[in-house]
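Key idea: predict the complex, not the pieces.
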Amino acid sequence: MTHEGNLSPRELERFNEIVLPYLDAAHNLARYLLRDAHDAEDAVQDSFLRAIRHFDGFRGVDGRAWILSIVRNTCFTRLRGRRSGAENVEFDEEIHTAEEPVSGPDVDLERRAATESLRDGLERLAAEYREVLVLRELEGLSYKEIAQVSGVPIGTVMSRLARGRKQLMQALAPGGPKENG
Amino acid sequence: MQCEEVRDVLSAFLDEELDPLRSREIQEHLDGCSSCADALGRMRGLAQRLRAEAPYYPAPDSLRARVSQAAWRDAGRGRDSGHRRGIAARSWLSAAAVVIALAGGTWLFAAHQRQEGLASMERDVISSHVRSLMASHLMDVASTDQHTVKPWFNGKLDFSPPVTDLAASGYPLIGGRLDYLSGRPVAALVYQRRKHVINVFTWPDERAPDSETPTRTEQGYHVVHETHGGMAYWIVSDLNPEELLAFARRVTGEEKGPMP
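Result:
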């Protein structure tokens, strides 16, 4: 790692203006990709430290796509690390049962159940599908922006979104997900 | 057009990501095919549900603090090394006149920068004050007890803000929160005088000598800037300037004892 990329005061201002505002988006994406609160926080911190170190080399204007691509790469590297650590990440029951409840005592139960089933459905998708769905539906990115973040062609974004939506609809349909669908 | 072909691009149609020609073809098919139109409806329903009901996980405050602190620290180092590089580059200039001219220019530039810095900080302080009143985010920790508020900042900041008890003088502490000014995390202590909220922003500034700048008024808010005991303070409120200044001198520790 180089340690030369110290920010000048002007760069700090620019960093605060075009990158820092996307900290929430970065954290939300990492949380969905890694499905673990602690890991997500850790990955986002890593990503931002990396971003700060390399910010002097960033010449673009789209700070959001830039930081989100750093975050997603960090997360996918961690996911690969987990996978090689023997467990299968795609259908991990433990992660779902360990979830903290979303709510206080006053929250409408039905709504809470709906939210939980959505989150469950999303978390059971392959990470590549989760990624495009979160970026599209929760962040409102265009296909072109998603392609920049994920580093894949627009056509791939298109087919991942189509497939991700289809699988999520199946998972949410009455009767639940198909066992080996 | 076959249904199968339509279903393949329905998702992109929903997102309005197809070219106009293709999009028109799909629309025409949908007008005449209720089963594909239903499929689109279900997909739209899912998209709306995701937006409305899927949990969103914003960054925790502690993460936000660590990240902005990291950026701020990195920038601190950057300024130092830049300064050293500048001196090295100029070292071949031996003529005294050139050195003096450069030094004079730098001094003027620095003074100008400081003026600019103060003015922009004043704007930041006021907008932070206004935001704290509007966004129902006045306090992260609500407490009138300095021994509760002070430890709350532990681990959130790399310094411990001085918290003074002025309740007896009619300025009760009502809480504190983490705030950001000029890209660095700062402590915001919230005091009250009658109906007026007073925000005290503070952070360490060890290089600066003790000082007090005259009270300034902007957008109906009064701002006092003081440096005392290695801490910078920006104090802002719509309280009248006389009381605010008296309060400022107590809260910074510049004056002690009961207020007049």
